[in-house]
Amino acid sequence: MSAMGVALAAAVGVLLGALGGGGSILMVPLLVYAMGVPTREAVVISLPIVGLTSVTAAVSHWRAGHVQIGAAALFGVLAMIGAFLGGRLALLVGDGVQLPLLAVVMVAAGLSMLVTRAELTSPERDVAPRGATAAAAMGIGALTGLVGVGGGFLFVPALVVLAHVPMRAAVGTSLVLIAMNAVSALAAYWGAVILPWGFVLGFAGIASVGALFGAHAARRVSASVLRRGFGCLLLGVAAFMLIDVLV
User: DSSP labels for 132-184?
Assistant: First the structure.
């Protein structure tokens, strides 16, 4: 792997470990624009990398008791169904749709990062309708299948609002969900793209080390500063992508 690949892998891992999700949304544009990988191949390659890195990042949260298995099971099964269907849909629509859609998702993610995250739930919380929970989980999963995003930036608020998971536990649980999503989406693409497993495992290994550093750094840096800085980065990358595909 080139020096650029090592640096990019470490950066993705650090962001994922520091934010509990979100860093994986940069995987596809990094592979496409920095490493010259075609869009569909980049989406598929990103899935095992994101999944393996998320598992590593989730370990420290698990040890701290910040992973809720019940919520992971509830959201995870539904999200995996959505991820598989999203992957199959991507094979039908073609990769020309994936990059513009990813750019739009990145704009939404960037804006959500810039909003000051106060307590998302009120002291008296109503039980969310089952239909809303199912739709949210399957919708986030479908995005994973379509454009290769892990979905952490959506899983965290969905877990807090719909499943009433405390914020700290929602971050750890979202990492488990990202890994589950990645497995299901990869199954949908299986056979359509030949994965370069040497590159995938090398990239994932470096990103996993970066995730451990990111988790450590997150304890020393304000979460608000991390989110806003990352939000600005996402908006900048999204703008570049939209200009590239539209002009």
Answer: HHHHHHHHHHHHHHHH----HHHHHHHHHHHS---HHHHHHHHHHHHHHHHHH
